[in-house]
Write a structure and sequence with these properties.
Blueprint (H helix, E strand, L loop, with lengths): L1 H12 L4 H23 L4 H11 L4 H37 L7 H8 L3 H12 L3 H19 L4 H7 L5 H12 L3 H12 L1
Helix pairs in contact: 2-3, 2-4, 4-5, 5-6, 7-10
């Protein structure tokens, strides 16, 4: 965008034809589009074709505005892809380390970002806080274990990352409305 803005200013200083300016705008847009496709793996010929059609019959500021909008759209899409990739890696880390002492700090450290940034990003992308996501995944795993095994509650608590059985029971009850033992009893009643 910075280079494009410098180009726009330079066209005022030099006597450059509209045809050449249009060609330069198109080349910059296609080069940026190519980099976007290489980085994201997402192709959209419709996007580049509609840009080409849009700039064919415009000139001056309108040409610059259309080109700037196209470039910004690609850059925003690339940034969103990168953010989603960070969140996907965070979720993968959580799922792989669910039985351990997982924290926002440990996840952020594994991704080489700050815990504060991860928390804000996680909330923005998923609509759910990182800690809430961890608790939800632990409770989901605990439900499966309660439904499919005869493990004691304290063993299930340990296998989903809770060292304190009472804390696990409180978290489980807050999430489901019943204790782990009651949940298992209700599940067994319904399944039989």
């Amino acid at each position: 965008i910075h280079i494009f803005d410098r180009f726009c200013k330079a066209t005022d200083s030099y006597n450059i034809s509209e045809k050449y300016i249009r060609k330069c705008c198109y080349e910059l847009a296609t080069a940026t589009y190519y980099a976007y496709v290489c980085n994201s793996g997402k192709e959209s010929e419709e996007l580049i074709n509609s840009f080409m059609k849009a700039i064919m019959n415009v000139s001056g500021e309108e040409l610059f505005d259309l080109t700037r909008q196209f470039l910004l759209k690609l850059l925003v899409n690339q940034e969103e892809n990168n953010l989603h990739e960070i969140i996907n890696k965070a979720k993968q880390y959580i799922n792989e380390h669910l039985s351990e002492d997982v924290s926002v700090a440990s996840i952020a450290s594994s991704l080489y970002i700050t815990p504060n940034y991860l928390s804000r990003l996680f909330k923005r992308v998923t609509g759910e806080g990182c800690n809430e996501y961890i608790v939800r995944k632990r409770i989901e795993k605990a439900k499966i274990l309660l439904e499919t095994t005869n493990l004691k509650t304290y063993k299930i608590a340990m296998s989903v990352g809770y060292n304190d059985t009472n804390y696990f029971s409180l978290a489980f009850k807050k999430s489901t409305g019943m204790s782990p033992t009651k949940y298992r009893e209700e599940y067994l009643k319904q399944s039989s």
